[in-house]
């Protein structure tokens, strides 16, 4: 789905950027142009970024919790 209509940025592109290392809205704005025009997409983009960060944190916790 389109998150940023002004720059035609989808949720998949935001997730891919997060997987590639974008960890802040500033980085997303610099990489993709998200929230650089009207700004209406900022909240949704931030939610997607936080969702990705939480899933990575959960994966790490699960990995660390496994017995050696």
Give the tags:
68 residues, mainly alpha, two-stranded antiparallel ribbon, 3 helices, 2 strands, 7% strand
Describe the 3D structure.
With 68 residues, the protein is mostly helical. Helices cover 60% and strands 7% of the residues. It has a two-stranded antiparallel ribbon. The longest helix has 24 residues. The radius of gyration is 14 Å and the shape is elongated. The N and C termini lie far apart (41 Å).
As laid out across the biggest beta sheet, the strand order is 1-2
Q: Tell how many strands the DSSP assignment holds.
A: 2
Count of helical segments?
3
Please give the largest β-sheet.
2 strands, antiparallel
Give the overall form.
elongated
- Unreliable residue stretches: none
Q: SSE string, helix = H, strand = E?
A: EEHHH
| Oligomer class | single chain
What is the strand and helix layout of this fold?
Layout: E1 2-4, E2 9-10, H1 11-19, H2 25-32, H3 42-65
Antiparallel strand pairs: 1-2
Helix pairs in contact: 1-3
Give a brief rundown of this model.
With 68 residues, this protein is mainly alpha-helical. Helix content is 60%, strand content 7%.
